[in-house]
# Entry
Amino acid sequence: MTSTHSFSRRGLMTGLAATGAAVSLAAFSTASRARSFPAFGKVVDEQPFARLEEIGEGIWGVVSTPLNADGSFNPAAIATLCNGGIIAGEDKVVAIDGSFQPAGAAWLAELALKLTGKAVTDVIVTHFHADHTGGLAGYQQGAAGPNIIATATTNQLIVERYTGARQTPEGASFAQPAIRPVLPTRIMTNETETVTMDLGGRTITLHPLKGHTPSDVAIEISDAPVIFAGDLVWAGLFHNYVDAIPSHLSTSVRQLLADPQNTIVTGHGAIARAADLGNYINLLDLVEEKARASFEAGKTAAEGSADFLVPQSLGTWQLFNPRYYETAFEAWRRELAGETS
Ligand SMILES: [Zn+2]
# Structure
């Protein structure tokens, strides 16, 4: 990241504590023709469900390909469903996020070993959603496995949502995860200060943020203008507000996109330069404007979102789920009604 960034860097890995873990496996899904978002970096591996792009020295980004060319869902995509990536240092190899199914994480783990000569040592979980955590078991090798790092809030939400009866994975139209996720093993208990990890020859900084969910983590790299934004930033796909705190989302996104030169690994959609993601902010602002007007007019989210359309001037934003506009208005209604903190 450049010296002009708006983040602060401080703290060590002191906020981490151990928790237990559970392991399980799921079947690999079948392949089909996947829609490709435009490649940003050099594609080093391509599968029916995702591809891996080299975006810096020792830095690779995953781009999942969840939609077919006709806009329908690509069933192969459930292996990963989310984006993520690999950051390699001389000593440590970090993977970002755990895919929806273990097959997705296992694919990334295998590529990390092939590309760096080292196994993944640490996995950073950007937030609790099942499409980022359901496949964490894919990083395990028998009983052994990398550290899995998440905030205390994220850990709690994984337990609440996915080890009990209530489950709300990203994209409610997708099948529920058939597995109990492996739980984080290193917990960031302080969610207001950044955490710095020394990978050997390079450091990365974990930024606890919120907005897509009550706890999101973005990852900054000391020696490269790359940010892994998790699901705070989407490109080409309309944001899923199901667990969003929209005002915080707006603040976090502006922070992450402040330096136009940065490469942003989004949570869903293409990898892009921050300078090219201005329409994402414009879209969030448009949703805010319309949702506030809807709330002030006393409308329900369904009523308020009924005539919502994304203008062509903001580009193409496909929907994982046809109800996502209503979900966005409902998130704003919750916040404006004082039902979220
Ligand atoms: Zn998410």
